[in-house]
From TrEMBL:
Gene behind the chain: ackA
Pathway participation: Metabolic intermediate biosynthesis; acetyl-CoA biosynthesis; acetyl-CoA from acetate: step 1/2
Residues the UniProt record annotates as site (Transition state stabilizer): H179, R240
MF term (GO), any: magnesium ion binding
Catalysed reaction equations from the record: acetate + ATP = acetyl phosphate + ADP
Residues binding ATP, per UniProt: K14, H207, L208, G209, N210, G211, D282, F283, R284, G329, V330, G331, E332, N333
GO terms under cellular component: cytoplasm
A GO BP entry: acetyl-CoA biosynthetic process
Protein name: Acetate kinase
Family, per entry: Belongs to the acetokinase family.
Length: 397
């Protein structure tokens, strides 16, 4: 069974064609600047890159070019589109309607539209990708995998905000959480690596990158997560402020004469470790300045402190913790940040093995053999998770 995985942004899209017989990636690629001058498609096959620069006015044109690349006689991966059995799509927000992935029908499309207000930058683009594929491959089933779905097991006391209840009833203002596909994948993979069932473990997953979120996965179910109504809440991130006194918002708006949109831009695009360090939103650039720039150290220290704060909070909610998993750009690759976070958790029973922790982008247990809590680094694979869900929902239809 061959599955095409699509992840559409407003002006870009990523894709992978996966052979589910062995879960191998047959081809992958990135389309940039859709609807903008300088559109480009970079197709990858067997380690080689093939670049096409041409005008792409919309997602349908872009996806048509993707399909053409997959069919290309020289560097394609298939000889006929009929070889693609199903298409899996990432959709950021499923609201309260979806606690699992789902096969696309007219009702699902309408419900994705109804979540536009909750994810105005993402859901419309995700929907464009689905509709474009439906037009180009009308007989192939489509599956949507929601970033929010894995977190829908949270209890009310953790997803409701202490605001007038009418705002929840009228506007569905609540905690949703994001990166759910990643948290789902790495928590399951951690259990598999340990030869155990996820339902028997208390796992804290740390998706740490330019966007960061954490989740408490208690015996297979998420009971809490750090991102909220939007991906702005939680630990400080590359350019997002994370948790802060909400009164700061109106204070700065009044002092600076900012509109709601302008303030939103400050919190999402101009804050985080970029603002703290004054250097970059890239943790590698900031780490390179340690010892030379005090603000770089402040930024990294605050990030580590916030992550530890959530680990402690989630451990108390679950009555302990068995496994801590690090994933995403920083979590998978920053040896120093993993050690910095875990070094102050020895009182909980975590012991870092420096030799085992000396790894980037690979699966590894990074704690000592006698550590009471197992610490792990696991590269996330959201595309594979999407493909697996797509196979599960379509292979017998």
């Amino acid at each position: 069974m061959k599955i095409l995985v699509i992840n559409c942004g407003s002006s870009s899209l990523k894709y992978q064609l996966i052979d589910m017989a062995n879960e191998d990636v047959m081809a992958s690629g990135l389309v940039e600047r859709i609807g903008i001058e300088g559109s480009k498609l970079t197709h990858k096959k067997d380690g080689e890159k093939f670049v096409t620069e041409t005008e792409m006015k919309d997602h349908r044109v872009a996806l048509k070019l993707v399909l053409d690349e997959l069919l290309n006689k020289e560097h394609g991966a298939i000889s006929d589109l009929k070889e693609i059995n199903a298409v899996g799509h990432r959709v950021v927000h499923g609201g309260e309607k979806f606690n699992d992935s789902v096969v696309v029908d007219d009702k699902v499309l309408q419900e994705i539209k109804e979540c536009f207000a909750l994810a105005p930058l993402h859901n419309p683009a995700n929907l464009m990708g689905i509709e474009a594929i439906q037009g180009l491959m009308p007989d192939v089933p489509n599956v949507v995998v929601f970033d929010t779905a894995f977190h829908q097991t949270m209890p009310e006391e953790n997803y409701l905000y202490a605001l007038p209840y009418e705002y929840y009833e009228k506007y569905k203002v609540r905690r949703y959480g994001f990166h759910g596909t990643s948290h789902n994948f790495v928590s399951k993979r951690a259990a598999d690596m340990l030869g155990k069932k996820r339902e028997d473990l208390r796992i804290i997953t740390c998706h740490l990158g330019n966007g960061s979120s954490m989740a408490a996965v208690d015996h297979g179910k998420v009971i809490d997560t750090s991102m909220g109504l939007t991906p702005l809440e939680g630990v400080c991130m590359g350019t997002r402020c994370g948790d802060m006194d909400p009164a700061i918002v109106t204070f700065i708006m009044e002092k600076e004469g900012l509109s709601p949109k302008e303030m939103d831009n400050v919190m999402n695009k101009k804050s985080g470790v970029l603002a703290l360090s004054g250097i970059s939103s890239d943790f590698r650039d900031i780490e390179a300045e340690v010892g030379k720039n005090k603000r770089a150290e402040i930024a990294l220290n605050q990030f580590a402190n916030r992550v530890r704060k959530y680990i402690g909070a989630y451990a108390t909610q679950m009555g302990g913790v068995d496994v801590i998993v690090f994933t995403a750009g920083v979590g998978e690759n920053s040896i120093e940040m993993r050690e910095q976070i875990l070094s102050k958790l020895e009182f909980m029973g975590v012991k870092v093995d420096k030799e085992k922790n000396n790894v980037r982008g690979k699966e590894a247990i990074i704690s000592t053999d006698d550590s009471k809590i197992i610490a792990m680094a696991i590269p996330t694979n959201e595309e594979l998770m999407i493909a697996r869900d797509t196979k599960r929902l379509t292979e017998n239809k």
